[in-house]
Known about the structure:
Its EC number is 5.4.99.-. This protein is α+β, with helices and mostly antiparallel strands.
Amino acid sequence: xxxxxxxxxxxxxxxxxxxxxxxLARLRGVPKSIVYRIVRKGEVRVNKGRVKPDSRLNPxxxxxxxxxxxxxxxxxxxxxxxxxxxxxxxxxxxxxEMLVVNKPSGIAVHGGSGLSFGLIxxxxxxxxxxxxxxxxxxxxxxxxxxxMVAKKRSALRFLQDELRQKRIxxxxxxxxxxSWPENVDRVAEPLLRFEMPNGERRVRVSEEGKSSLTLFxxxxxxxxxxxxxxxxxxxxxxxxxxxxAWAGHPIAGDDKYMDDASLKAFxxxxxxxxxxxxxxxxxxxxGSGEPMRLEAVYDGPFSGVLEELTKRSGKRS
Length: 317
């Protein structure tokens, strides 16, 4: 598809972006090499002047994008009305700047790796009028709970900076194997990502890894299991899962970091899912700075396991 010359005036929400990122977002289907070439050759202009790829855009700047040929993208399967309805019903907070979703277990936050769509694609499909929807952070596919989505670029920048400055607190609930020790309230083992022979990515404790810290509190003990609250201070991949396993108490239902015998025993009591839930978020609202705390209820499978364990613990006593 051949495009015409585009003249775009940068508004407050677009401001602050690098020129290359601004172009890549608007020229989907155009190879990166071509995008960088048209900048280098001076075909992209800002306020009629040449720019570099890493130049930052300001409010009121006028960007000229030259005519280009964009490849027509293959038609992707679209989320159906049922899954759109499920995701819309999972929204627990929304204002003009952002929304927060209680993501169901089993749904990825975004498409890729063989998945046609994830949470963000479902939201975009349901909200065709939305100009901007972007994930602020991520959750593993099998982890349920609170995910923040920005509705404005300014909100995305604010919230991601708050994450970097560790001013957003996340609280997870996890059902772990065994009785969590009272004296273990933190795990600070460095974590290293690696690849299995089959190409699957995993994480392990290693001195070569990145510094990581998770705070733990035991909430309740059952027969053979404990419900803990885990608050990650750093945000490494699989951090809570690996730190729990390293402490000798892997998360129930974790087929990556739990041994086969423990996994089989968990399935025998009706366990169907990874028992990790992003329970609460504490953060400041973009724009107003108002402090906010949100909590997300457990889903049926998570609650069902806790109810079964409560019954079993009662019978034992």
